[in-house]
Specification:
Blueprint (H helix, E strand, L loop, with lengths): L1 H21 L3 H5 L7 E4 L10 E3 L25 E4 L5 E6 L3 E7 L4 E2 L21 E3 L2
Antiparallel strand pairs: 1-2, 1-3, 3-6, 4-5, 4-7
């Protein structure tokens, strides 16, 4: 009887284990961000797929097409970010480096803008609002 209960418990845990195995770690998810870059993803937790990548300051993210975004560009479409540059970057809600902004130190990443610090900014209103970035 004990063997059957253990077996049943193991079988019941399989869906949970497969979900955990399928969820990539933040390190694995952000590994696709090249060195000396700012990377950004459509959804929270660095998904789906390959990130948008920039190397320098950009006054207007409408210059970067992305078909998965409602706007057709990365403008107002970013939900998670990573910084592999050697300096702090600033993300702004308006074009031309204007409006509300948040900094992202070298080597840092934010999987969800609404999350509490140090993981996030405690700023759900920043989600899907980024329009420009400034960096070294």
């Amino acid at each position: 009887m004990r063997t059957r209960n253990v077996l049943a418990a193991g079988i019941a845990a399989l869906p949970l284990l497969s979900m955990l195995a399928a969820a990539p770690s933040a390190e694995a998810a952000t590994a696709s961000c090249p060195a000396d870059s700012l990377c950004f993803w459509v959804d929270t937790n660095y998904s789906p797929g390959a990130p948008g990548v920039v190397k320098h300051s950009n006054p207007n993210f409408t210059a970067f097409p992305h078909s998965a975004c409602q706007t057709g560009t990365w403008n107002d479409c970013i939900s998670s970010i990573a910084n592999t540059k050697g300096c702090t970057a600033y993300f702004h809600v308006d074009a031309n480096y204007r409006g509300h902004s948040h900094s992202l130190a070298a080597g840092d990443r934010v999987p969800n803008f609404a999350a509490q610090p140090p993981t996030g900014y405690n700023d759900p209103g920043f989600n899907d609002k980024i329009s420009s970035d400034s960096t070294c």
